[in-house]
Amino acid sequence: MDYVLHASLPSSLVSLSLLFFLFFIIITTTTTTSSSSFHAAAAAATTVFNSTTLTFGEAYSPLFSKFNIQRSRDDKTVGLLLNRFSGSGFISSDYYNYGFFSASIKMPSEHTAGIVVAFYTSNVDTFEKNHDELDIEFLGNVKGKPWRFQTNMYGNGSVSRGREERYRMWFDPTKDSHRYSILWTPKNIIFYVDEIPIREVVCNAAMRGDYPSKPMSLYATIWDASSWATDGGKEKVDYKYEPFIAEFKDLVLDGCIVDPTEQILSSNCTDMITGLMARGYSTISPEGRKSMKWFREKYMYYSYCYDNVRYPVPPPECVIVPSERELFMNSGRLRTKMKFHGSHRSRGHGRRGKTNRRRSKEAVIM
Question: Which PANTHER family does this chain map to (predicted)?
Fold first, then answer.
């Protein structure tokens, strides 16, 4: 800006112009700093996420509907199909006593209302009435509207105390693959999207059995959830657009393999768990905290921690953040409407496209 032009102007106008100029500089600097912090955290995080990837055959097996599972020639990419006959899913061949679970996933495009793609850990096959679970579930939408996703946690069969959070995405998950990860240690749980931490649950004694602590397997599924997934079940899966394909690659399983039926877990896991908690992705850096704050305040549209109707006293692991609190009503929903109209209603565990291991073994021969 050429300040000489203001020489002939009244002093009041000069002062006003300078005020607007300073305001512009402050806003621009703040925005740039926030954006730079976000991208710096993403760049730094990629250096600590260098995990060994596995082929499908090395660590996974079909869970159900093997005929709807497509494996690439190098066995590093897996396509899970949903059509009018069935959904499909796969499961890790082993149980893990804590671990880091990750995959790059590309969502189906076109009209995806009623579809759920899930990437989660669970031990429901062994501990049916007191199982643990950590979920990332992707919720499809009508054509032209964005996918959404949610995270959840259950411990010791606490399905009546769901801990859901729901979010939008800052990218189109149907255009390219994006990495989604779950870290699970005795100390904390972190959910990641593209190496950006979006949620952390820190274990504390008050949670008791609600903190997942029993060995779990890794699951991936696609299934028809027309009864609830889109607009509270008003929008159903339209099989005119079938098949719906969710693509999984860059598969990571990093944890201690155990036999879940053992009463006393092997002491061999001690060193593995210690090493896991020493990894870069087990602790959120200051830059990561900034990125998580940015994501949660901009893209989270429901949180059980702010749902005072459901939980008059927030569960013990909830950390009430003032800048988040002011965004939500007592129902846990945003004060301002989003551009899409998704269902915020709580739900039961529902049909997840899951089967037990006995059925999964039968599915292998289909």
Answer: XYLOGLUCAN ENDOTRANSGLUCOSYLASE/HYDROLASE PROTEIN 8-RELATED
Per-position DSSP letters for 112-150, written without gaps between them? -TTEEEEEEEE-TTT-SSS--EEEEEEE--STTS--EEE
pTM of the model: 0.82
Residue 133 appears among annotated catalytic residues: yes
Give domain limits for the chain. Answer: 3-46, 56-288+347-363
Could you check whether the bond before residue 243 is cis, i.e. omega within 30 degrees of 0? yes
State which CATH number among 2.60.120.200, 1.25.40.10, 1.20.120.450, 2.170.16.10 fits the domain covering 56-288+347-363.
2.60.120.200
**Active-site position among 128, 137, 165, 317:** 137
Segments in the chain below pLDDT 70? 1-48, 263-267, 338-366
137: annotated active-site residue:
yes
CA distance 218 to 201: 19
